[in-house]
Amino acid sequence: MDATGAVTRAVTEFAAHHPDLGREVCVGLSGGPDSLALLACALRAGLHVRALVVDHGLQPGSNAVASAAADAALALGAQVTVLRVRVGSDGGMEAAARTARYAALDDARDGRPVLLAHTADDQAETVLLGLARGSGARSIAGMRAWNPPWGRPLLDVRRAQTLAACAELGLRPHHDPHNRDPRFTRVRVRSEVLPLLDDVLHGGVVEALGRTASSLQADNDALDALADDLRTRAAVGDDLDAELLAAAPPAVRTRALRRWLLDVGATEPTHRVIGAVDAMVTDRRSRAQVAIGGDPAARTVVVRSDGRLRVERTPR
Ligand SMILES: Nc1ncnc2c1ncn2[C@@H]1O[C@H](COP(=O)(O)OP(=O)(O)OP(=O)(O)O)[C@@H](O)[C@H]1O
């Protein structure tokens, strides 16, 4: 089968496996080879597609890149919307651009799901980076194929195939120079680490990392369900029954604690905060209180008293 056929089949199978996707979809189109191939093949798979092109306005010429992507989409027969966003500066430029992009795509999708063109290579990079950085199982499980409204039909498709599909279809994708800039960690993982590992292990590394992601996703789902149940059983009003938590396996307990911390208003709790709160559950010599942040107007801490975990807020 040619590359276009393989990419189209991936989209067709994705739509068949996720009937709630429907036939009316949006595609996040950067103009790069992955998203251009996804757009073309989603149309070939019979989906009704609106391309959403986000112009982050961060580099000179971004306007022209967005216009070229929009023209390519129109020429393929898709509807197109170009979204111009303002990127804040919270947490670094790349993270801020991603946040602005997802918000703009979500605003513009008009009730339809949004297909993104992450490939097997992107998934492998995510898993490997998560492993090397000591991130938790959630991160090593990589990206989900279907996390409504976001769909990723190409997670089993290699980047080389999207490039080949573009060539077969006579499409001329934009090649973002950032994707080759070795100052970016991900670029070095892509161009140096993965090829070396693939060589050392005699091939198949991208696929193997994809399998790691899928099996961890299944494990995570099971542990999350147990954690939800524990969280419900341990709830005493807004507090948590520490004795009941202490009897649970750590993998389930720490997940239940994370959920509780989010519910009581902590911003995404770090590994360190969850570990400190967990020590309050299991270790009598642990700290008397743990600051959890989340509310700029008050100092917010978790304390343990009378066998319960409780949140206390002191106005600043
Ligand atoms: N500016 C954008 N506008 C709309 N969608 C985008 C934009 N940038 C990224 N996306 C979507 O998010 C996916 C992943 O983004 P990422 O930056 O990892 O890919 P990319 O290098 O732009 O790849 P490609 O353009 O080849 O798809 C893209 O495949 C695309 O579906």
Task: Please describe what this structure looks like.
- The chain is α/β, with parallel strands linked by helices and 316 residues long.
- It folds into 2 domains: 3-207, Rossmann fold; 237-315, Chorismate Mutase Domain, subunit A.
- It has 12 helices and 11 strands.
- The strands form 2 sheets. Strands 3-2-1-4-6-5 form a 6-stranded mixed sheet, sandwiched between helices. It has a 5-stranded antiparallel sheet with strand order 7-8-11-10-9.
- A hairpin with a 2-residue loop joins strand 7 (235-236) and strand 8.
- Helix 5 (120-132) crosses helix 9 (205-234).
- It starts with a helix and ends with a strand.
- The model has no long low-confidence stretch (mean pLDDT 94).
- Bound molecules: adenosine-5'-triphosphate.
- Residues 28-30, 32-35, 52-54, 101, 116-118, 122, 176, 179 line the site of adenosine-5'-triphosphate (ATP).
- Residues 25-191 form the tRNA(Ile)-lysidine/2-thiocytidine synthase N-terminal domain.
Write down the CATH class of the largest domain.
Alpha Beta
- SSE ordering: HEHEHEHEHHEEHHHEEHHHEEE
Structural class determined from secondary elements: alpha/beta
Largest sheet: 6 strands, mixed
